[in-house]
Specification:
The chain is an all-alpha fold. It is about 80% helix and about 0% strand. The protein has one domain.
C-alpha cells in the first residue's frame, strides 16, 4: 500500500477517535504511520496532527471533565515524557519498530481483558502516589508510540465516571500530554521543518475524520467496527515486530 494512503487512513482515524467513534483507533494510527514513514519520522509527523485533533475534542467536551485527575497525573507525565525523549534516539529504527509493534499487540490484549479486570475492581479514590506512577508510565509510552491510552484508562476507569465525564477527562489529559511533548520533540529533533511540512499536508483530514466519525456514530454498529480495528491493530503490530515479507 502506498505510504500516502497508509498515512491518510491513519490521520482519518485520529479524527474518528476524537469524534468518539471506534475505541482504540488512536493506537492503530501510530503503527500505520510507522509503516508509511519509519518510526522516527512517524512519531514527529503525528504529534502536530494529534494536537489539532485535541482542539476539536476540547471544544466538544469543554469542562466535562474531572480536572483533579490531571493534577494527579501531570507531574509523572512530565517526568515520563522527559525519560522517553532521552531514550528514544538510543534505539535503532528496527528496535523502535519492535517496541511500537509490541505496544500495539499488548494494547489489543489489554482491550480483551479490561472489561473483566475493571468489573472486579472496587471503585477507588485517586491519589498523588498512584497518579505519579501512572503519569510516568503514560509519559514514556506516549513518547514512544503516542500510546498511553491503556495506562490512562487504568487510572480513570476504576473511578467509574459517566461516559461523558470519562471521555472529557481523557481528552483533557491527552491534550496536556501532547502539549508537553512538543518542546521535547522539537529539542530532540523528532519534529523538524521536514516532518512538520508533511503534517501540514494531512491537517485537513482531521476535521474530515471528525465529521465521518459523527456520521458513523449515527448509522452503523460501533461494536463490529471496533472488533475490526482491534484485529487490524494486532496484525499491524505483528507485522512491525516480525517484518514478514510478502
Amino acid at each position: 500500500m502506498p505510504a500516502w494512503l497508509l498515512a491518510s487512513v491513519a490521520v482519518l482515524f485520529i479524527g474518528l477517535s476524537k469524534a468518539g467513534f471506534g475505541g482504540g483507533l488512536g493506537m492503530l494510527t501510530t503503527p500505520l504511520c510507522v509503516m508509511a514513514f519509519g518510526p522516527s519520522q512517524a512519531i514527529g509527523i503525528l504529534l502536530p496532527l494529534l494536537c489539532a485533533g485535541d482542539v476539536f475534542s476540547l471544544y466538544h467536551y469543554w469542562r466535562k471533565w474531572r480536572v483533579e485527575n490531571l493534577w494527579f497525573l501531570l507531574p509523572g507525565m512530565v517526568i515520563g515524557v522527559a525519560i522517553g525523549a532521552q531514550l528514544f534516539n538510543r534505539f535503532s529504527p528496527r528496535e523502535l519498530n519492535i517496541i511500537i509493534g509490541t505496544m500495539a499487540v499488548l494494547f489489543v490484549l489489554y482491550q480483551l481483558v479490561k472489561a473483566t479486570v475493571f468489573r472486579n475492581l472496587q471503585r477507588f479514590v485517586p491519589n498523588h502516589g498512584l497518579g505519579l506512577i501512572c503519569g510516568v508510565a503514560a509519559g514514556v509510552t506516549s513518547t514512544f508510540a503516542h500510546g498511553a491510552g491503556p495506562v490512562v484508562n487504568a487510572f480513570l476507569i476504576p473511578q467509574r465516571f459517566s461516559k461523558e465525564i470519562y471521555t472529557g477527562t481523557t481528552v483533557l489529559v491527552f491534550t496536556w500530554m501532547n502539549g508537553i511533548k512538543i518542546p521535547f520533540f522539537l529539542y530532540g529533533g523528532l519534529i523538524t521543518q521536514q516532518t512538520f511540512s508533511v503534517s501540514v499536508l494531512y491537517f485537513a483530514l482531521i476535521p474530515v475524520g471528525v465529521w465521518v466519525g459523527v456520521w458513523l456514530n449515527r448509522r452503523i454498529p460501533e461494536n463490529l467496527f471496533v472488533k475490526l480495528v482491534y484485529l487490524f491493530t494486532f496484525l499491524t503490530g505483528i507485522q512491525l515486530v516480525f517484518e514478514f515479507k510478502f
